[in-house]
Design brief:
There is one protein chain. By secondary structure, the chain is mainly β. It contains five helices and 19 strands. Helices cover about 10% and strands about 40% of the residues. A hairpin with an 8-residue loop joins strand 9 (about 120-125) and strand 10 (about 135).
């Protein structure tokens, strides 16, 4: 379930969510070992913690580059000189358009809104006195229209955890490998990746009990399309899952799928 490159620094020093290993100023990595093991894999959840005042989030996708096809997250990083990247979220059958609203500066990947209740926002417009990074709950008295007026990067996705740390998923039979993004109590960005499959109720529970300060999170992608890549401080990781209930399950062979859209990280 897991592809790792040069992870020797991490496994020995970041075995629990509260033990962070710095890979660069303002960027740390930790591994959470789930208290309730998954049915497959090692049940480890990787979390990359990013200071939004030291690192910049960017949206890159086929709609901005006009690529004829997508790339793996690693390939997006290598072609655009990014330190790390994760899925931007689920996408439509056109292999181009994000499933919810997505705006990056003057570029609109999808101007349509759906019923997803979580909106990630980064980079206040014209230096507005707002948090550099924030995950908003749309049922808490705000709107995508207002958020879009305030921030340069706005992405609507399916909600996992509602502020201030509420697990909104009921238990279900479906399980999958998961890529997610979260916010902690200090307003830092959390890239979250679990190659081992969990129900989203159980994954949320593990994250909330891990001591990482998570207060909000949104689903980005599940199954074989979910990916995370990082290369910094002598550490390089490439994580990809191959488990989703609607796909062939299990096995050690990983085929990393090209995807159309990513959230990238580069120094500010």
């Amino acid at each position: 379930m897991l592809m790792l490159i040069s992870l020797f620094l991490i496994l020995s020093q970041a075995a629990t969510g509260s033990e962070w290993k710095q890979v660069a100023p303002g960027m740390d990595i930790a591994e959470i070992t789930a208290r309730k093991p998954s049915i497959e894999g090692d049940s480890r959840i990787t979390v990359v913690r990013i200071d939004p005042n030291k690192w910049e989030l960017v949206f890159i996708g086929r709609s901005t580059t006009k690529d004829l096809s997508g790339k793996t997250v690693r390939e997006w990083c290598e072609s655009h000189n990014l330190t790390a990247a994760i899925n931007a979220g689920m996408f439509n059958e056109d292999n181009w358009t994000h499933t919810g609203y997505l705006k990056y500066k003057s570029h609109i990947n999808n101007g349509s809104k759906n019923n997803y209740q979580s909106v990630m926002a980064y980079d206040p417009i014209n230096g507005k006195d707002l948090p550099q990074f924030r995950i908003y709950d749309l049922d808490a008295g705000t709107s995508i229209q207002n958020i879009s007026k305030d921030y340069n990067l706005v992405i609507q996705n399916l909600r996992l955890i509602k502020k201030p740390g509420i697990n909104v998923w009921r238990q279900q039979d479906r399980i999958w490998s998961e890529a997610a993004i979260g916010e902690d109590t200090e307003g830092r960005i959390l890239f979250i990746y679990s190659p081992s499959p969990f129900s989203m109720h159980d994954l949320n529970k593990e994250l909330l009990n891990a001591g990482i300060g998570i207060i909000a999170a949104q689903h980005l992608e599940g199954g074989p399309e979910a990916q995370l890549y990082l290369k910094a401080g002598g550490v390089e990781i490439e994580l990809a899952g191959n488990y989703e209930t609607s796909y062939p399950e299990g096995g050690d062979d990983i085929t990393i799928w090209p995807i159309p859209n990513i959230i990238g990280v580069k120094p500010r």
